[in-house]
Amino acid sequence: MESRILRPTLGLYAAAFLLFLYGPMIVLTILSFQGPEGGPQFPVQDWSLYWYKQLLGLSEASRVAQLPVGDSLLRSITLAFMTTVVSTVLGVMSAEAFRTRFKGSGPAFYLIILGMMVPGVLVGLGMALLSSTLGISRAWWGTSFVLHVVYTYPFAFLVMLAIFNRFDRTVEEAALSLGVSPAQTFRRVTFPIIFPGVLSAMLFSFTLSYDEFARTLFTAGRDLTLPLAIYGTFSVEIHPNIFAFGVLTTLFSFTLLVIYGLLMKRFTNRAARFAGQEDNG
Amino acid sequence: MTALSTDSPMPTETSPAQLRERKDRRRAWLLLSPGLLWMALFMVLPMCMVVYVSFWTQTTFSVNSTLTTASWERFLGSATYLHAIGTTLRVWAIVLAATLIVGYPVALYIGLFVRNKTLQTALLVACVIPFWTSFLIRVIAWRPMLGTEGAINTILMKLGLIHEPLTFLLFSEFSVLVGMTQIYCVFMVGPVTFMIGRIDPSVIEAARDLGASFGTIFRRIILPLSLPGVMVGAIFVSVMVLGEFATAASLSGRKVNLLGNIIVSQVGSLKWAFAAVAGVVLTLIITAVIALALRIVDLRKEM
């Protein structure tokens, strides 16, 4: 059979692909342990944690200016948190609306999806023009924030739409016909079922907003968010402290991912236990 | 259905089903309105503003709302800007082709040849993990990879394959293309894997039993059934590549100017009207590309 040659060939190809995906990050990680005199290239002078210390402000008197990450990190996390809350609420509401077929659902669907399609540099420019015309001052918690929601809300919406598509409507109807109020039904029946989806929508929104750069560039005003601060250092010569920063932020993201995984696991465990009780009774 | 009765002046005749439908519709619009309002105010309105400002009068450091086509004339009459349109289209076409060529075999492998579900999921997760590194860091990571003292040149020199470091690798169009392909090819791999994974194995088995070679099976079954995935992937990649500027700004050493870069540099020098013109041109290109793709595939049906 031809697949006897084809399968290993494609397997090798996939392995090469993974190397292509991870190669730059591996090189970056290696170079982040560069010695104090080394530059952002090979060879590694001597292995050290110097650039990590420099990044955290623990090394005295450096030839390289410290990365301006402190305040901007706090701003980015706050912004991502605000975006997460608003876009998840909007996403759940819109997906709930799409459970019934109604006239105009097609255009409404595409209007929402457009938010993740339209390039950040374009809406960013439009927002900057709009705010300067209306005399609104630009700020990360205002003009940037609304654009971040425009971007993340479609993702939350799609995640919730996928959840609602697999969701048995009769469970809710049973609760309603037993005389439970709609609000109570949502809290006690609907929400527990869609919770894993809500968690995924939140994870999506947070990571997208936290890393968003194009939409923030023209709209953040004076105070920079983290990606803007990083971008600012690109125009001048780069140093291994950026590499150390890249490694640390990746670790931070993985921590978020682990928290998400733990929450998800705890939730599914509880659901399983609950189902077990039902069976026993 | 009694659709005609809604036009009659007797509302008492509406059936309970119709009443319920009407109530459902009102509820749906009520739930949708905050989201749609948000999109109208913060996405549609800014985009209209871009079109509007592209006709404003540009003075040295500011714009005023006297309408003129001067910015358009200057844009369309300038070789630099027209060249940027060409570069944008060229980079888009090459990156799109590259993500397809790089991504399709991988999707074929994961979707068709890996039958173990756990391994399949593990491979897909492995493709997504790099996204937890900041976009800008992933872009800048290509510098120590491609530079004259970077990993590739170091390895090639150690192997004795070259004696002088290759200089075309970094700060060229090549580095922009490689960087974009690496960053965006996952958006091609995902949808294509999904579509290939959905192919019923018994169809392929039947074709094989009937004596079809793998080439025939691929051409007649796998390729047509995976095409919607390719189109969805192409839309994702196109939209992101066309709106790009950060990769070109940090890897090309100012040699590659995409429309996105034009917008950024014009805003930097307070030429708002020119930036708006570039924005409208970019919007037109993206709209054309999406419209073309949507004619071939219905996005809503595929999701």
How would you characterize this protein structure?
Chain A: It is a multi-pass membrane protein. Chain A: Belongs to the binding-protein-dependent transport system permease family. CysTW subfamily. Chain A: It comes from Pseudooceanicola albus. Chain A: One of its GO terms (cellular component) is plasma membrane. Chain A: Residues 73-260 form the ABC transmembrane type-1 domain. The complex is a heterodimer of chains A (281) and B (303). Chain A is mainly α. Chain A folds into two domains: 24-59 and 240-281, no CATH class; 70-236, MetI-like fold. Chain A is built from eleven helices and no strands. Chain A has helices spanning 3-31, 50-55, 70-97, 105-117, 120-134, 140-165, 169-177, 182-211, 214-217, 226-234, 240-280. In chain A, α3 packs across α6 (140-165), α4 packs across α6 and α6 (140-165) crosses α8 (182-211). The longest helix of chain A has 41 residues, at 240-280. The radius of gyration of chain A is 24 Å and the shape is globular. Chain A starts with a helix and ends with a helix. Chain B is an all-alpha fold. Chain B has a single domain (72-302), classed as Orthogonal Bundle (MetI-like fold). Chain B is built from 15 helices and two strands. Chain B has a two-stranded antiparallel sheet with strand order 1-2. In chain B, β1 (57-58) and β2 form a beta hairpin. Chain B is flat and about 75 Å long. Classes of the chains: A mainly alpha (281), B mainly alpha (303). Chains A and B meet through α1, α3, α4, α5 and α6 of A and α1, α3, α4, α5 and α6 of B.
